[in-house]
Specification:
heterodimer, A: mainly alpha, MetI-like fold, 73% helix, flat, B: alpha/beta, Rossmann fold, six-stranded mixed β-sheet, three-stranded antiparallel β-sheet, binds adenosine-5'-triphosphate, binds magnesium ion
Chain lengths: 272, 255
């Protein structure tokens, strides 16, 4: 735009940039860096005596305990039963949760009947039900699997029917206008449309599964990460306690990584 | 296949959308419906396609759909309605999968319609990678794949810019010239109606009734913007639309 003749030339400035942000981008180094800094700080603190060894174990000692656990074969002895419970329990809970969630999303009667029940179950601390499960499913694996299954079931149901509700209705009308069968519509439109929500529900479910796993193992098991942590805790063996905590954190990271992989594979179509 | 709408009335709660509506859709020709916003064009199209039931009256199809027709009444939607999780090819396959055509039969149809809509090079692309015009071509390819007897198009070009719209109109004309199909084409764009319609039906404001029917005799391939006869048609449609739009406007403002 030209200034009107005669007026002095106005000061020119660049238009300030105000967009950007609100779009997460990968920053691979940031996560590990936080861990390294934190662990480095603890190591320095415990070595110099700034942190007393009664309050926190030295990270290098925890690491040594982990190595020893690995070499003695005790790691496998505790980790394998835990992994098995985690896999079985969450597999049952998540598959039942997806089935019930889809049914709630599709059928008004199921929705009216089950949504209040799910709402009633969701806030109940599942661990409080463990004694009941012991009576129903036995003291062994049954009660632990059932506990994890129930714990992963409710969040999966809620995520799934939310996902089904959000499937674009115009796509369903389109499918009907091409005379697709009911079953085709469910398989090719409703399920893929709900998948993003189901997968983000999975993240929450798996974290809950790990919490419940440890709780169940603390209450009644002699093998498993939970049992290991409990034993270390009761002996005030901080190094072993923290070794157990590290293993649990790694489990959490691994499950979250698995979900990310699944999202990358199954949701390649999503705009980024 | 011919369609006849007989004394159809429809309402949504207190809103009367159509009253005693009669319409003939002749076979092998494009019938354009234009009218002011909210007059019930989309509703009429949904009724014709069997996606909704009229409150009274009926919609009749006369004649058998041609052999090989998989879905006699086929829609093209304004917002394309493509599945984002399927590629171009997958979106076309979607409407063929329920028909037991076999892998080879399906392959042949998909290749044919993608070639006809000039999309062969994009068969493996995701919808998000395509421009608006290409997405609508995918939707048209999907509609062609089922060899419809009647195409029902609800403002198929409204979401596109005017250059893309002109190109796609030419595409539609080419497709029709190669194999003439029956179509009901809803639009609020006079230029589209005058370019594509063999017959243009102007609807009144709500409750929708026929205000004027204009038959355009000149052949689709010979229509150009500076054709004198076509200009007269456009002027006539413009006047009819203008009066309805103004009347509708006065109603809304309560004057
Ligand atoms: N499902 C519905 N429920 C209630 N009212 C509706 C519904 N569908 C349409 N209407 C109303 O019916 C009237 C006609 O709608 P319709 O979509 O058929 O108009 P249209 O001619 O296609 O308009 P436009 O040019 O804006 O697309 C409008 O007043 C609209 O608000
Ligand atoms: Mg409309």
């Amino acid at each position: 735009m030209r200034e009107p003749a005669g007026e002095p030339e106005a000061e020119t400035r660049e238009v300030p940039f105000r967009g950007g942000g609100f779009a997460p981008r990968p920053r691979r180094w940031a996560g590990p860096l936080v861990f390294v800094l934190l662990i480095g700080l603890l190591e320095w603190g415990t070595r110099t005596g700034f942190i007393s060894s009664l309050t926190l174990p030295r990270p290098s000692a925890v690491f040594a305990t982990l190595v020893q656990l690995w070499q003695s074969g005790a790691l496998a002895e505790h980790l394998l039963p835990s992994l098995q419970r985690l896999a079985l329990g969450s597999l049952m809970g998540i598959s039942a949760g997806i089935a019930v969630g889809v049914a709630i999303g599709l059928f008004s009667l199921v929705r009216a009947g089950l949504v209040p029940l799910v709402a009633a179950l969701f806030p109940v601390p599942k661990i409080a039900l463990l004694p009941l499960f012991v009576i129903w499913f036995g003291i062994d694996e049954g009660s632990k699997n059932a506990l994890i299954a129930l714990g992963t079931f409710t969040p999966t149901v809620v995520a799934t029917y939310g996902g089904v509700d959000n499937v674009d209705r115009t796509l369903i009308r389109m499918a009907q206008s091409f005379d697709l069968s009911w079953w085709s519509i469910v398989r090719k439109i409703v399920l893929p449309g709900a998948l993003p929500a189901i997968l983000s529900g999975l993240r929450v479910s798996l974290a809950i599964a790990i919490i419940l796993l440890v709780a169940a193992e603390m209450l009644g098991a002699n093998r498993g990460i939970g049992a290991y942590v409990l034993e270390a805790g009761s002996l005030y063996d901080l190094e072993r306690l923290f070794a157990g905590v590290v293993i649990l954190s790694l489990l959490g990271i691994a499950s979250s990584w698995l979900v990310s992989r699944a999202e990358k594979l199954l949701l390649a179509w999503r705009p980024r | 296949m011919r369609l006849r709408v007989e004394r159809v009335s429809h309402r949504y709660g207190p809103t009367e959308v159509l009253r005693d509506f009669d319409l003939d859709v002749p076979a092998g020709r494009i019938t354009c419906l234009i009218g002011p916003s909210g007059c019930g064009k989309s509703t009429l199209l949904r009724l014709i396609g069997g996606l909704e039931k009229p409150a009274s009256g009926r919609i009749l199809q006369a004649g058998e759909p041609p052999s090989g027709c998989l879905n006699p009444l086929t829609y093209v939607f304004q917002d394309f309605a493509l599945l984002p999780w399927r590629t171009v090819e997958g979106n076309v396959r979607l409407v063929l999968e329920d028909h037991g055509l076999g892998a080879a039969g399906m392959r042949r149809i998909v290749d044919d319609v993608l070639a006809r809509t000039r999309l062969s090079d994009f068969a493996r692309a995701w919808p998000r990678q395509l421009s608006g015009g290409m997405r609508q071509r995918v939707a048209i390819a999907r509609a062609l794949a089922v060899s419809p007897a009647v195409m029902l198009l609800d403002e198929p070009l409204s979401a596109l810019d005017s250059q893309t719209r002109a190109l796609l109109m030419d595409d539609l004309v080419d497709l029709w010239l190669r194999t003439p199909f029956t179509a009901v084409y809803v639009t609020h764009n006079l230029a589209e109606a005058a370019r594509l319609g063999h017959r243009v039906v102007v609807l009144s404001r709500r409750p929708g009734r026929i205000r004027e029917i204009v038959d355009i005799e000149s052949a689709l391939q010979s229509r150009s913007d500076d054709d004198a006869g076509l200009k007269a048609v456009r002027d006539r449609l413009w006047r009819a639309m203008r009066e309805e739009a103004m009347a509708a406007d006065r109603e809304l403002t309560g004057a």
